[in-house]
Amino acid sequence: MTTPTPAVRDRLLALDSAELPSYLYDLSALREHAATVRAALPERVELYYAAKANPEAEILAALGPYVDGYEVSSGGELAHVAKAAPGRPLAFSGPGKTPAELTTALELGVERFHVESLHELHVLAALAARTTPGRGPLPGILLRFNLPLAAASLEGSSLAMGGRPTPFGLDPADADTAVRLLTDGTYPQLRLLGVHAHLASGLDAPEQLAVAESVVAWAADLAARHRIRLTEVNVGGGMSVDYAAPERRFDWTAYGAGLGRLADAHPDLTLRIEPGRAVSAYCGWYATEVLDVKHSHGEEFAVVRGGTHHMRTPATKGHDQPCTVIPVSEWPHPWPRPSAAAATGRVTLTGQLCTPKDLLSRNVPAPGLRAGDRVAFGLAGAYAWNISHHDFLMHPRPGFHFLTP
């Protein structure tokens, strides 16, 4: 959905110009979507929310009833999520974890570490030896591997994290060494749980299932080779969100059914997924107003409050952010009100930055668009504010509104 929900539309029209731009999050819409996702997944498939997609405390809290835990990828996310969702299971991911971050995670009792390299395994073992003796369960390890599999499925991805040379995860050539360190008594302070593999983002359900099946098969072969029992396999996230056709959503029903068949084939294995964007993107809107409308070399441009320093996604991914224009009849100013030519019919929406890359959406059908009209950019509930270059040109920061019934 890109058309604002009634709650979002009402709040957008109620805000004063000085309160724009603002992020508007419909928490009821978020809960409804999360409940649909959860209902589509089999009982033995765990759902961890990738906090990097949107770590706002209100978002984390709203998702609480529908997720089994949260995936964090830095010391900052670790501290933030542990405070915002106290007592909930956490999985600590990401390359380049520092000794200080690992120590904090151990002290907080994090039970799952997605280990990215042999070096990280050595560091974690040394820290765990002096941090955790006698304190609850041993830290659990999921070895993250960059697996060279399902290449055909990865071709359509928007962001490849594996299946080719990348800085993410262990090379499969290190698999036997890593498993031996965790099973031959070298590191008794750690317990091997299983395998993690997040290989790509932007995949549809059939491609995601193909990747999951390949990861589980590879993990089963690894376990058989070492004559050990793995209890968990995390097949990652990366479920597609289509910014060009936002009404087309990831097929959670088909994906859940496929994961159910995979789980039935491996009854002793817990499967885990960790989506982020596909969970929270649909609940957020970046709301603003048109400041100016101008004609340039045969095209119409509308400059809005804010821009890609608040919502970097369209500039980063090179797409047009889906949006809805909400006309406003009032014009309280004594100067003339600029407007787009009705005959042109198409307007490119830009921000206030001094760069031609500050494009939010091109060729939007908005005949007669006028300064003072409001615009709601949809799919802004993930990878929007939190990945943006906030301080460029030192414009004011946006407001944040979390809407509930």
Report on this structure:
It is a single chain. By secondary structure, the chain is of the alpha/beta class. Helix content is 30%, strand content 22%. It contains 12 helices and 18 strands. It has helices at residues 6-14, 27-40, 57-63, 75-84, 99-108, 118-131, 151-154, 175-183, 205-226, 252-265, 277-280, 313-317, and strands at residues 22-26, 45-50, 69-72, 90-92, 112-115, 140-144, 159-160, 191-196, 200-201, 232-234, 270-273, 284-296, 299-304, 323-326, 346-350, 359-365, 374-377, 399-403. Strands 1, 12, 13, 14, 15, 16, 17 and 18 form an 8-stranded mixed beta sheet that branches. Strands 2-3-4-5-6-8-10-11 form an 8-stranded parallel barrel, surrounded by 5 helices. A hairpin with a 2-residue loop joins strand 12 and strand 13 (299-304). The longest helix has 22 residues, at 205-226. The protein is elongated, with a radius of gyration of 23 Å.
